[in-house]
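Structure ticket #2291
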Amino acid sequence: RPLQVLTTNCLNIGQPMNQSKIEIGVIAGNKNNHPLGVFLTPDSDGLVEVESTKYTDMSDFIIVPYGHLEIHRQTATAQLVHRFLQTGSFRNLNNE
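Resolution: structure written out below.
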């Protein structure tokens, strides 16, 4: 399992089968605080490089200052997910 996560292009998200375009938001962490992070570029969450999280058809993208093991436990991450589900964007009207 760890080797699969550390490879690029291990997840291929195909085009939706229905006619409507789905909105995909990507949240990437950039706090490289995992021991395996020494093998990655500094711009990573310790297990995943920020650049490899980008998806061609994503609707929005944001980088947060968290590592791989902590990003999903942060209130700020949950708030970003909620905002994206409500508005289709990670940013609010004030561009925050």
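Closing remark: Helices lie at 2-5, 75-87.
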